[in-house]
Amino acid sequence: MLEKLGLFGLFLGCVLSATIVPFSSEALVSGASLLGYNVWVVVIVASIGNTLGGMISFGMGWLCKWEWLEKYFRVKREKIEKAHKKVEHYGYIAALFTWLPIIGDLIAIAMGFIRMNPYITTGLMFVGKFVRYLVVVGIINLAFL
């Protein structure tokens, strides 16, 4: 499927995987790398898409009420409160870790909920995701190419 959708499919998959939709963007990045796409283009497209998805989660936290997050998105209040405490403790540095599975979405939602600066959050979120994809592509290139 990635072969047919190309970089747009990579972008879309990375957007979705950074929201509360459970999906592996690393598999897409690995596949694109193995299919011969330019490594830098893959990393940049994936990072932009995944950052956009993370900012969607951030926006959910910014705009939504507790009840909406629990009812419509099945995000437990206790988990967001726990992430909220971590975000308050670490500040903007927490945005670097929004790439982490499961907890990354909660970090992004918590950052939005406490109304952290979206520009700083976006920049640091991008850096964290970019570094993660560089590592993934590096491992794939060492192992398979």
Describe the fold and architecture.
- The chain has one domain (2-144).
- Helix content is 77%, strand content 0%.
- It has 7 helices and no strands.
- The protein has helices at 2-17, 25-34, 39-63, 66-73, 77-90, 103-113, 118-144.
- Helix 3 packs antiparallel against helix 7 (118-144).
- The longest helix is centred in the C-terminal third of the chain and has 27 residues, at 118-144.
Helix content: over 70%
> What is the tally of beta strands?
0
Low-confidence stretches: none
Number of domains: 1
**Principal-axis shape:** elongated
Kindly state the mean pLDDT as a whole number? 89
In DSSP terms (H or I, runs of 4 or more residues), the helix count works out at 7
Rg calc? 15 Å
Assembly annotation:
single chain
Task: State the separation between the terminal residues, measured CA to CA.
Answer: 22 Å
Largest sheet: none
Query: Approximately how much beta-strand content do the residues carry?
Result: under 5%
Q: How do the helices and strands follow one another from N- to C-terminus? A: HHHHHHH
Structural class: mainly alpha
Short description:
By secondary structure, the chain is mostly helical. It has helices spanning 2-17, 25-34, 39-63, 66-73, 77-90, 103-113, 118-144.
What order do the helices and strands come in, and which of them pair?
Elements: H1 2-17, H2 25-34, H3 39-63, H4 66-73, H5 77-90, H6 103-113, H7 118-144
Helix pairs in contact: 1-2, 1-3, 2-3, 2-7, 3-6, 3-7, 5-6
